[in-house]
Structures
1.
Amino acid sequence: MKDQADPISAPGVTVSFKTPHQASSSNTFFAFSNTINGVARKSTRVAQAVNPSNRQPLWDVPVAREVDVNEAVTAANDAFLAWSRTPWAERAQYLTRAKDALLEIRDEMASLIMLETGKPIQLATLEVDQSIRLLLYYAAHPELKPKVVTDNDDLQLTVRYVSMGVVAAMCPCNDPLMLATGKIAPALLTGNAVIVKPSPFAPYSILKFVEHLKSLFPPGVIQALNGDGKLGSLLVEHPEVQRISFTGSITTGKKVMAAASKTLKRVTLELSGNGACVVCPDVDVSLVAPQVAVGAFLNSGQFCLSSRRIYVHEDIYNDFMQHIVDAVKPWKASLSPGDKGMLGPIQNEAHYRNVKQIFEDSQSKGYKFALGSPTVDDGKSFVIQPAIIDNPPEGSRVVTEEAFGPIVSLIQWKDENDVIARVNNTNTGLGASVWSGDIDCAIAIGEQIQSGMITINRYPTRIPSGHLSGWKESGPGGEGGTEGLLSYCNVQTMHCYKMSVAPGSAEAD
């Protein structure tokens, strides 16, 4: 899941800094603040993100200063003392209230996401609904109770899961609210205090969500800070922040890990993927090709689990190619985020330039475009129409890089061992899918793929109960499911020896 915004140095962030001015809408919903210790906080400096549908600036957002970071961390530490001792069931009730609060502003939040990401409105609404489901899942999750490992006449050995402290949740721009909620909910449920940092490219929905929750939670339990290129490093290097959960690019993730090593923080990095899809010869092409197409082009390919390398057996390759082209051909990325399509613009200029370069490289190398034009027009938006490349070389940029846009490769395979080797020939390992009429065969192939998530006979999607963890440079750690809850806990092992040490016990023996 990519976000070019670098929390260490933020190169290429095209946001402007100036003195605050009146929000462009009189509706107070479209006025934005940081949230520190339960209070809305403005700033003497503001930034604006850009609407990717027309490249026009959106609303002012405050830029947090170092003093704001220090105040937020202090408030979080103070709140943590009581919050970590709050019973699990009571913390779960808070998540239920957060779900209800999000439902109250469901339509407004969908509009915000539509404008800050460029998603069509139905996908923006889906993101809000996915965030609601995450809150529901964690609110209903059973408590992580101590586990008894050994209990005999001499020793009781137990393992318990303990809240860590202050968590910094650092979020990308492609699914801002959903990915933030996927960090906030498990961190709060396990008794941690959370400071959320949105992407400077898409800060609005996260800031508004936390602002909307600020009266529901004790002050300092959940806070949000938008900032400039210094904010990420201030959070990562702060000695009183105990854990970092970061979603973004591999390049930035490595910088986060290096900075976190100064204080040996616990780190989860959910980084880029270059998802592979293996299609076996025993499938109904007319059924499978349209579903693979959705998994490749959903949100214009701006999804870490997107199927970017589609390996199709040579016996059905031409037929599959025709069906997937027919499925995608009617899908047009729209200039209007209000259109009821499934494709919108690339979220920001940095991603747009990267995708454009991969189109240009494919054109210059003479690769065949089975669908789409190799020419990307520089217009008034970041719209790029979908493209399918017919059997490019394994070492080509379109195969080896995560474009994070609407361009995918269709590649022939014949030998099962060979295709597995090609699928695994990458520095990433986040998600992959296998399609076959023989479930056992599909599982056998999936078990050989070096990836944290394998999906059989469906395009990859996240579900709250499913743990998602990266292999290789897709990052250490993971989120989702019970395993995701455990990642927000310290583990304490208690060795309780049953030998009596009370006064007089030796005489009694």
2.
Amino acid sequence: MNPLADGQWHRMHPATPLLRGGAVLVAIAAIVFANLRERLVDWVARIPDRNREGDPVDAIVEHGWVLWALLGILLLIVLIIVWYRVTWQMTQFRVTADAVELKSGVLNRQNRQARLDRIQGVNLHRTLFARVFGAARLEIVVAGHDANLHLQYLGSAAAEELRREILGLAGSKRAAEAAGFETGAAPLPQPVGDIVRSRAEEFVMPADLHPDFAPASIVKVHPGRLIGSLILSPFTIVLIAVVVWLVVEVVRGNYFLLVAVIPSLFGMFTGYSRRFSRLARYTISGSSDGVRVGYGLLSTSSETIPTGRIHAVEVVQPLLWRPFGWWAIRIARAGRARQRGQAENASTVLPVGSLDDVGRVLPLLLPASDRTALLALVDATARYSRTARVFSQPPRRAAWLHPFSWRRIGYAYVGDTLALRAGIVYRTLDFVPLARVQSVGVHQGPIRRMLGLVGLAVHIVDVRIRPRLSVIGTVAGVELYDQLARSAVMLASRDARS
């Protein structure tokens, strides 16, 4: 058994005060830099002093408060360090046979518990700063609003072992998950050379491919393909249009636009680097606890997604990816929007891959569905075959509303999973396990009523992935509505994981 799961109270990693307070220190540095930015630009460009009315730096210099301002900033930094040090001493956790408990707070004390039978997953996040200290943040995902527990921070190897232990306890697999781990006292301190070597190995190791904890990834996302997928995006078209417009205006003599637009362009380019850094070294593998996904170049994350919590799977192909045969896969799972306070909870499982990659990933996400049938639907979506009637299509009169894409709209069943396809410019194929359906809706406006058509929407716990049929015959739509409603209720009542 992992020593951290022995039922006793433990403190976080000793570097936790620095790791948590570092973000505040960076924010203070950003505020100071923002106030000094114009002066730095003027100094580099050798521009004479300008009148900056209301500038706090000018007020401090004019009144002779420079020393006091520096002392105030220094005092604030010391208070932040002391506060996070005290917070670290007051924060403890323990793993028992029934729950994971976390005690925290200095002025307002909190004692939170995550019952093992309510744990949906355990995720591991390593920021760049934390990796320098060999630390990681453990996120215990629990159903409910703001119910997740965050253990910030633990030793990187200890966090990986503790995640494995918690998942084993939650699934009543303690013996299988504990195999291979030594019991007893905590390890002895490592020599400095070993510590430096282990940090270097951690930086070059993929996010979720530690040889002791995870199997090899079933898909390899090549860096060149990832860069190409980022460049071939609608955002690039907007960026090119802005650059062309800027060049035209500069040729006309409007040089002031360089000062106004270039910082925004720099932010756009950094957006590419951030997204590449987040999606680089993507790994996907199956395990007894679910689908393991790792990603990140500088800051890394490793998540375990129980297949029972996946409410929808979406396979997409933008128009610019079509010549290369690239696809992406996203999923919708319960709890993600609530836990992060965001409106979007679709997660990227495959950032970019070939049709063969899609065929390897889909069976991991939908293990209860027939693999051959899944691949047949993906192939039909990719080729849009008109001869093989894999999908049920709307009647020809639907061309009045969708003249180019009505043949591309359809639905099919793969066991207890509903598949919906749509799109001619942006191809989508949605898979929805019927046991996860929250509700089904049918809508019909005046134009659809005249054409004998209806629209059907399948509601899930998501706002980005919206499985729906924009058009379908009225009779077929009502029959599909009744069938989905009955099947969803029946399957949800039988599903032990819902």
3.
Amino acid sequence: MSSVAARRRLLGGAIGTFVEWYDFLIYGLSVPVLAHHFFSDSNPTAAILGTFAIYAVAFFARPLGGVVFGKLGDRMGRINILGITVLLMGGATLAMGLLPTYETIGLAAPVLLLLCRLVQGFAVGGETTGGMTYVVESAPPGRRGRWVGYVGAAAFVPAAVSAMLILGITAAVGRDAYVDWAWRIPFILGALLAVVGFVLRRALDDPAEYTETLSETPAVNPDGLTARNNLKALITVVLLVAIMGVGGYMIASYMYSYLVKVVGLDTTPALLSNALAMLVLTVMTPLWGAVSDRIGRKPLMFGGTVTVVLLAYPAFELASSGTVVGAFAGQLLLVLGIAPIHAGCWVTMVELFPTKVRFSGHALSYNLGFAIFGGTAPLVAAALVSSTGSPLAPAFYLMAIAVFALVVIFFTPETKDVELRESAFERDTIDAPAPTPAPAEY
């Protein structure tokens, strides 16, 4: 495969991840405005919690999308499904940007917002897995960690892009105009990005890893997920998502609202500090991915998780100081742990499944994990602050999740050198030394 073709495959896998996270994160950064437009202003706290609840509920549509698109992706091919999911995401985001508000149609407004988010979640159920699967199966030997790291970077770039876009629109039209109507512009742009992703993907073919496996095993059977080793992989991925989801969405989706609503920072410095932290995360993720190709995935996951345990409390203490420097420094401390965690977890989760059930297995477990842990992270964090009155409450939640993750990582097999057509758990079983037979009795 030529270098040009390789770059096209990498870009084709990453573009959908960029669109997916843009669509999701633009919602997270717009929570204060959405709460104002889609809920009653009589109880601002309830409006914020309601907006975060809709954010969380969308994640429960992801496992359903994972089941549907996962089976289709293993049967019909990776690229066919990736074209569908990116357009479906873009359509839902466009609809959100055009919805009437609570002031216009009352309770129907949050209901319609919820429906759009459910469609988004359903589409994302196939998009993330499809992009990661396509990139891992297309990557050159010894580069899978680095390539998936680039896809991970594409997931974090939208946070910075979204923040700068909101700042630019606000500066151009004024804060009042942005709150009134211009908040819709970023959502409409999300639909245009989806069209670009669709066009890029139409020119791509399925990776040889998939097509050769399909030819060798004509009946690619997603029901193979019931096999013992694949069940282990399903459970492992669901549990690994805990630290990824809570850590990632804590900084990518919750931190801006936290700085504005809890700390009392102005919107502009809050957006800027969050954007800068996400840019650092964007740069660090592929670098750590390259490191994982050399030393393995587990050392990164262990090191990053321990870092989160040690730094979560001082990170939130700095972020809650009320200063721009403190806000950025606190988020930067979180990034130091989150970057290696994501770089190690993302590629591990895909490599745990054999090629014939990779799309369906990863889609189901990854999205189920995010429904349980990731999508609820901002809601849980906001509820903890509201119920305890402590701005440091989210730190303890993050630390508890990290301690739990250390146990999960310990039992997760190393996947750096695994052959993609076999299960990582099966390889560990094969490689394990045979038990010494008992001496014969005479």
